[in-house]
UniProtKB/TrEMBL annotation:
This is GntG family PLP-dependent aldolase. PANTHER family: L-THREONINE ALDOLASE (PTHR48097:SF9), L-THREONINE ALDOLASE-RELATED (PTHR48097). The lineage of its organism: Bacteria, Pseudomonadati, Bacteroidota, Sphingobacteriia, Sphingobacteriales. It comes from Mucilaginibacter defluvii. The keyword Metal-binding does not apply. Residues 6-286 form the Aromatic amino acid beta-eliminating lyase/threonine aldolase domain.
Length: 339
């Protein structure tokens, strides 16, 4: 029997019955008036997990990142990020549009930067040069194939930023995947970052939403910017309740997604139509195909396996909450017999 296995993204998940029930029972109010209890609870809960002072619930990770960049820069400044960075590649040119800031792109290893790479790219004080004011890291790195920073690796970057007066922002769309892989503790992140974006609608499985975490002053400013961008939401507690539920119930289970990814990657490495499987650390798999990737994507789709190409000969699989063991088994069987 053919089933559908959607490996396109970890954003495709639907709320579980228990999450839906939590949403239905949410205490709500007008959050623009500051009266939604569930939104306030989510913001405080997420902030406390990472040792930050305050949080801001936003409709998307793009918005939390863009607000953070706006908070931490002035027009004519420059930020430093890896060339694969989501903030640069997949946020519609928002860095330039929203903040009037230029971007210095570095070539990290699978999107991972070091202090040694960043240091020479910080502009000296000179009227010719844009003022470097911000570094943005991504953990896990989406386009790096779910690669992770450990806190050990982040520490020297944070020290460099402090020394040179730069702010450090984390695009933590998949921060909990990174924490499950590295064994680092969320609470230790506060020491290093000025801002952290956390997506609730990726592996954590909520329908909508991300939170920006920072100190109280930054979040106060961020709240004004969210309003300007049209991100002030009214009875958003229904959505925040899904986030609270996810933080309580869907963090530890990310390990299952990682196990599923390893199983799929192992099978892929044995397939004669696959030329290379990149290292798998979390829930994202990148692999190369001999034939054009889109041809393979179409062949897999005929068997109900949905995925996407990221390059001419490269395909991406992403595991998530809605991928069950029987989906993995089915996908492995199809992959093995694909020709
Ligand atoms: C998904 C994602 C975001 C935010 O995306 P939205 O679709 O706007 O929520 C930000 N950074 C990374 C690395 C992502 O994968």
């Amino acid at each position: 029997m053919q089933i559908t296995v959607d490996l396109r993204s970890d954003t495709v998940t639907k709320p579980t019955p228990a999450m839906l029930e939590a949403m239905m029972n949410a205490k709500i109010g007008d959050d623009v008036f500051g009266e939604d209890e569930s939104v306030a609870e989510l913001e405080q809960k997420a902030a406390a997990m990472f040792g930050m002072e305050a949080g801001l619930f936003c409709p998307s990770g793009t918005m939390t990142n863009q607000i953070a960049i706006k908070c931490f820069t002035q027009p004519m400044d420059e930020l430093i990020a890896d060339q694969t960075a989501h903030v640069y590649r997949y946020e519609g040119g928002g860095i330039a549009f929203n903040s009037g800031v230029s971007t210095r792109l570095l070539n990290g290893y699978r999107g991972i930067l070091t202090a040694e790479m960043i240091e020479p790219e910080i502009n000296a004080e000179n009227i010719h040069y844009p003022h470097t004011s911000l570094v943005v890291l991504e953990n896990t790195v989406n386009k790096g194939g779910g690669s992770c920073y450990t806190l050990e690796q982040i520490k020297p970057i944070a020290e460099l930023c402090k020394e040179r007066g730069l702010k450090l922002h984390l695009d933590g769309a998949r921060i909990f995947n990174a924490l499950m892989h590295t064994g680092d503790k969320a609470i230790d992140y506060e020491k290093y970052f000025d801002g952290i974006s956390v997506c609730l609608s990726k592996g954590l499985g909520t329908p909508v939403g991300s939170v920006l975490l920072a100190d109280k002053e930054t979040i106060h400013k961020a709240r004004r910017i969210r309003k300007v961008l049209g991100g002030g939401m009214r009875q958003a507690g229904f959505l925040a309740a899904a986030g609270i539920y996810a933080l309580d119930h869907h963090v530890e289970r990310l390990k299952i997604d990682h196990q599923h990814a390893l199983l799929l990657a192992n099978e892929l490495s044995k397939c004669n139509w696959v030329s290379q499987v990149l290292p798998v650390e979390t829930n994202i798999m990148l692999f190369d195909t001999f034939e054009p990737a889109d041809l393979i994507v179409n062949k897999l789709a005929e068997h109900g396996i949905k995925c996407g190409s990221t390059d001419k000969n490269r395909i991406r699989f992403v595991t998530h909450l809605d991928i069950q063991p029987h989906h993995v088994e089915y996908a492995m069987k199809i992959m093995k017999n694909l020709n």
